[in-house]
Amino acid sequence: MPSTPVPTAWRVAVGTARGAAHEERHLPNQDSVKFQPAGPAGGVVAAVADGHGASRHFRSLTGSMLAVRAACAVVEELAADAAEPWTAESAGVLRDQLPSAIVGRWRELVAQHRAGHPYSAAELSGLEAVSNGPDIPYGSTLLVAVITAGWLICAQIGDGDMLAVRPDGTGWTPVDGDDRLDGLHTTSLCQRAAVSYFRTAAYDLRTEALLALLLGTDGYGNAQVTHPWQPAVAREVAGLATRGHDWFDRQVPVWAERCASAHGSGDDTTIALLLAPDSLPLAAAAGPAIEPDATEVTDDIAAAKPARPRRHRWFRR
Question: Who's near 29: CB < 8 A, 6+ residues apart?
Answer without folding.
Answer: 16, 17, 18, 19, 22, 61, 268
